[in-house]
Amino acid sequence: MRKVLLIVLALVIILPIVIVVARSATPVVNLTNPINVIGQATPIGVRVSDPRGLRSASATVEQNGASYQVWQMTQPVKAKESTFNFTAGVRTTPQLKDGKAKLIVEAASADLLHRSARIEQDVTVVTRPPTVSVDSEQHYIYIGMADLATFDVSGSYTAAGVRVGDQSFRAWPMPGGKPGMFSLFAFAWNMPQTTIPVVFASNGAGNDVTSPITVVFPKKEQPHYTVHQLQISDQFMQKVLGELDPNGSGDPVARFVKINSEMRKSNNKTLADLRFKTADRFLFSQPFQRQPHSQAEATFADLRHYIYQGKEIDQQVHLGYDLAVTQHVGVQASNDGRVVWAAPLGIYGNCIVVDHGYGLQTIYGHLSHIDVHEGDVVKRGQVMGQSGMTGMAGGDHIHFAMQLDGVQIDPKEWWDPHWIQDHIARRVELPGFHP
Ligand SMILES: [Zn+2]
Questions:
Q1: Tens of pLDDT, residues 280-313
Q2: What is the arrangement of strands in the sheet containing 66-72, beginning at the earlier edge strand?
Q3: How far is the CA of 366 from the centre of ligand 1 (A)?
Q4: For residue 235, how far is its CA from the centre of ligand 1 (angstroms)?
Q5: Centre of ligand 1 from the C-alpha of residue 388, in Å
Q6: DSSP secondary structure, 4-22, as one string
Q7: What letter would DSSP give residue 424?
Q8: Can you say whether the dihedral through the CA atoms of 17, 18, 24, 25 is positive or negative?
Q9: CA 341 – ligand 1 centroid, Å
Q10: What is the pLDDT of residues 82-137, one digit of tens each?
Q11: 49, 61 in Cβ contact below 8 A?
Q12: Ligand 1 mean position to 295 CA, how many Å?
């Protein structure tokens, strides 16, 4: 009898607890987009998931010991997952001041225990947009080439630089501790010629300011890119397929075109992403060097029509110089720098990329052998490997190219000491440079 009573008692007391605990849940709170800055009215998205729905949710901004509610859920929700969008900023919370603050989001489950979750995010309150003032110089723009602009940015900003169309080039503090900023920027070979480069600064709170650079676009002196017909032999096609698509099957022409277009695109993306592996100073002090005694078999931005058995099968633009000397010649670093890539890279074959600082990098393709490693410091003229014909190359040569913040540019100006003096060294300190 007593035993039965105990069991009944246990059921009456413990079972409800077990049920409550089993049916309870803790909400999971996330921001739908990263928030680091709060400005006038910064959009904030919050995603909350809870199998039992939500009883309440709110967001507050804490600053200097005060707490301001910036949003509150109006009524409980039953959904397992909810997304809430609201704005926070000075427009609705005028008490906020420029400086550090905390964004806090809290949510309580609709379960019986009202379990809650809370996330905290450090933010910076920025009440005013940044301002930019650009140098008053005239910048001569040539397609496929680079230039340098100096400017000042004041106020709070999270990103600044030069924007040309949809491409942007980072701002760097002036070398030598001088005031102001500068950007090396490129006017890409395929950029619409009416594009005006601008200096921009944004503070991540929706405050984006731009100021145009004064440009001169000498129409008659723009480079004229050449057009070539490239005859594809069966031998070359088999070489390329055997090397770059060894396990492929099907129509050889389709496979070749896929390598030439899709693999090229992907390889160029890999190259462009190396922009983030760059030094925040000039690693060189001399003009760039062209591979000694080399013959240019192809130049920058040549348009190539690929002809196979009398028919055009593809078109591509060649974004570098094909420099031929003799077979297996020592491939020399064009300037002082640091190796940021030393490995096979698709159509470029065995490939080396050397960083020279501020997003400026040189590329060497089709090597038969690489003698440097990623991270190595190299000197101008140093042999880094041997030329060859790996990748999409029909004969022994060096594919030499240059990129600036991931945009491939014509290297020829960088071979010219007077151009470097006029466009770079005159505007920013380039220690040790003598034209
Ligand atoms: Zn090439």
A1: 999 999 999 999 999 999 999 999 999 999 999 9
A2: 37-38, 116-125, 99-109, 54-63, 66-72
A3: 8
A4: 18
A5: 12
A6: HHHHHHHHHHHHHHHHHHH
A7: I
A8: positive
A9: 18
A10: 999 999 998 899 999 988 999 999 999 988 888 899 999 999 898 888 899 999 89
A11: no
A12: 13
